[in-house]
Amino acid sequence: MPVGTKATVKTISPKELEEDIQAQIILGNTYHLYLRPGHKLIEKAGGLHNFMNWNKPILTDSGGFQVMSLKGLRKITPEGVKFQSHIDGSYHMFTPKKVIEIQNSLGSDIIMSFDECPPYPATKEYVAQSLQTTLRWAKRGKDAHTNTKKQALFGIVQGGIYEDLREESAKRLIEMNFPGYSIGGLAVGESKDDMLKITGLLNKVLPRRKPRYLMGVGTPKDLLDNIANGVDMFDCVMPTRNARNGTIFTWQGKLIIKAARYKQDFSPIDKNCDCYTCKNFSRAYIRHLFNVDEILALRLATLHSLHFYLELVRKTRSAILENRFDQFRKEHENKLDSTRE
Amino acid sequence: MPVGTKATVKTISPKELEEDIQAQIILGNTYHLYLRPGHKLIEKAGGLHNFMNWNKPILTDSGGFQVMSLKGLRKITPEGVKFQSHIDGSYHMFTPKKVIEIQNSLGSDIIMSFDECPPYPATKEYVAQSLQTTLRWAKRGKDAHTNTKKQALFGIVQGGIYEDLREESAKRLIEMNFPGYSIGGLAVGESKDDMLKITGLLNKVLPRRKPRYLMGVGTPKDLLDNIANGVDMFDCVMPTRNARNGTIFTWQGKLIIKAARYKQDFSPIDKNCDCYTCKNFSRAYIRHLFNVDEILALRLATLHSLHFYLELVRKTRSAILENRFDQFRKEHENKLDSTRE
Q: ipTM of the predicted structure?
């Protein structure tokens, strides 16, 4: 899912998202939209789809991760999280019920429970206690959510890097019978091995016929590795944010477009790619645009990187359906996260 | 002509320029492109059209206006202008011949003579002397330009706000027989009355069957007023630059999109406009995008304002051809430069 935190996938129009990138679903963020422009305004606009002119599905994050990140500006209580806006310092309170109400106003198709996302590293004792809070909040959110036909509420598995806690978290959520499950609290600083240990474990625990969403992950190789562990959905700012910094993803690895060696390189970013950027512009031109701080640089780089990410998962899906995923993975995994020379 | 100073019309893709804005010609800038990425690199790319993927006509400015603006960093000599790059302080020299060579490398369809653009205000004595320099340089540039079948070289009329100097300038250039004439040195601080006095005079002096290009002008009303004075071509950063600051042009005047009154205004910028922005997004949404510093704000505002400017001249052209220009002008001129309440 391309990330559209503040009701726009950065630099990209909905038309490009649909026609060039072929996104099927995008992500919005409850915390950011609650603060600006406000969920009530979005409700008046007819919901987030209408507001931003995106007619395909939207998933909204619960804001749990964002308010936990406001260190020094937030206080966790058994009822929820009291926090100060990072914009104007104003005080706000997110509770499991409030977060559902906000997402009901937004009208997103898939919504998230409010969770406490523990920091990394954290002691097992801390994570165990935090987990109980998240489970209580999951129950409260589920009880508060009545618009279940139009909006699917996912529970969020927490438990840090501790397998027994993760298993407990998953099983307790499964008892509550959510239509899908998110895996939160990963990609927060732990090793890749720890991440895969947890998704590998959850692959055995979570129901096979319900979607599993790994939040905030990741690199192209992370996607393949976690798809191998049964993950169905991802979101990550990596393709968009890195593109804006001049790091562009390709099947042959990351291309650092500002590098001097591309100064007179009149070939496209990827000659086999059929995105608008690669069909029409050279590395030399895109490098020039970055060099003179032109916005078209950010657009062209983002368009290609999102196109690549979506193509990566489309091709992975085909490989799975054609029973050749392992071969596909072996063929690509070593190059994907490398940096092109 | 939308302005594409550094080989891109700011925030806009060539596809949008062609399909949504329906631009027939755009402007590039010799000074900026000479410094970055360098005209030799653009020549290696197959010229500016290829480099930036724009297959319709391009006009390039000579850089005269830009190097004159480098106060303290440039020295005018009879041979040309020695200047320091505004980027790295490196020394360079533009002569009438050099500026033609650069534009030959760029391969633009319409190119400009190197001119000395006097400041405003300036004494008549200064302007008279400066004018002689510009005329000598026009001759040298014309002699240096051999690729006349592919690139039309325009002479630039100077002379400040002094009618006799403007007339002398125009007549001397006409003797040199350029395929088109630019009117430089206006919109530099003089009154609107002075500007129209000069274009009104030149309307009687310049040949009727050759194009007249008023450089760096202007507001929507400026366009109508100067079209009435026989001007055929314009360029101005106003639609693009103002859009990026949140001032959006419409038939009913300038709309300040960040104003609080648009916070819950779910109507488009202009309900009668058929641009992508107006067909798909509300004022409330665009205001939100500006408020949270999203690049899509700049794109949507620019797209509309360029669409409006091009529609303004298309409709003006129709009105002229249908012999109802005066009526058309009266109907619109009072609203165009106003600010919408």
A: 0.98
